[in-house]
Amino acid sequence: MGDEVRRRRSARDWAVDSLVFVIGLFGSLWLYDDGSRDAVSPTFLAFDFCAGMALCLTLWFRRRWPVQLALIAAALATFSDAASGPTLLLVMTVAVYKPLRTTLAVCAAHAVALGIYFAVRPKPDPLPALIVAAIAIYAAAVGWGLYLRSRRQLLQTLRDRADRAETVARLQAQQAQLRAREEIAREMHDVLGHRLSLLSVHAGALAYRPDATTAEVAGAAEIIRASAHQALQDLREVIGVLRAPVGELPQPTFADLPVLVEDSRKAGLPVELDFDAPGTLPDHVGRTAYRIVQEGLTNALKHAPGAPVRVKVTGAPGNGLEVEVSNPAPKSKAGEGQGLRGLSERAALVEGRLEHGRTPEGDFRLAAWLPWPA
Fold first, then answer.
1. Domain 253-374 homologous superfamily, CATH
2. Which sequence spans correspond to the domains of the chain?
3. What is the DSSP string of 306-350?
4. Which end of the chain, N or C, is less packed with Cβ atoms under 10 Å?
5. Do 304 and 327 meet the contact criterion of CB atoms below 8 Å apart?
6. Over pLDDT 90: what percentage of the chain?
7. Are 81 and 52 in contact (CB under 8 A)?
8. pLDDT tens digits along 189-237
């Protein structure tokens, strides 16, 4: 509440403070006793009136010093009728802006002031009725102030919750963007890595085959051109997704596996495909199987060019899908590289398993089991 009290007064604050000043001034004039019922001197009455008017002026500063002004009002309330109106407003202000303990302390000071008032300025009316009426009026003012305070706190709590919800939503959106970028980076590794491996194999064949015929050179150059063109297209698709406000990276499907194997064969990699998986796989499982085979062929091109590769894809709904890529690879670096780690994450995301490493025969084996609901 302190910041609210000290901030620059807004147009709404000016309007509220003006209304409070008018109410306090009206209350002072209405409750002012001109001496018709009390045998007091004109000087005392004039001092009473001036005290009430001065206290009305302090209402303009009630937000800045609520407790101090309420205690001054308690001192003036010990003798002044004209101070009654602004006194109630100042007590209510304490209840609005200060904790309950402070409000009760101010109320205790005013209770003492009220007792002094009845001792200094006795009234012809029954004293118990006046005391009950004064207590009821003070209780109403304090109760209204406490209601306003609780309402302000509730609104502030709702605003804080809305701000926190907005912040959480913004952080979640940022995390979703980061996850999307990580997925795109993984797709770039999988797609472009395979394409560039094909380019490397054919370029290396041209470099180490100076005796190649014109037709063989032309064929290899055409494959290099086609692979480079496809790699460029894949890169354009990825960049297009990064630039677009909404969109998804084009994903391969399980049905594209034969095309992937055929591309590797054209690159000079002898691939034997054992495909026995009738039925329709879920899209996310099919993409994962495709990426596993793609990574296995890419590693074979890198570490064992020309060595035979066996790809086995078998499974059925309800039993799961088994994917295995194996090749003789004495120079392979099993367990290294981001690609295999990324495949392990992919398999885990679809609740599957992946393992890789050398077999007792010296082959490198990449195998995975992926769920296939019935």
1. Histidine kinase-like ATPase, C-terminal domain (3.30.565.10)
2. 2-124, 253-374
3. TS-EEEEEEEETTTEEEEEEEEE-TT--TT-SHHHHHHHHHHHHT
4. C
5. yes
6. 5
7. yes
8. 666 666 677 677 767 766 766 777 777 777 777 777 777 777 777 676 6
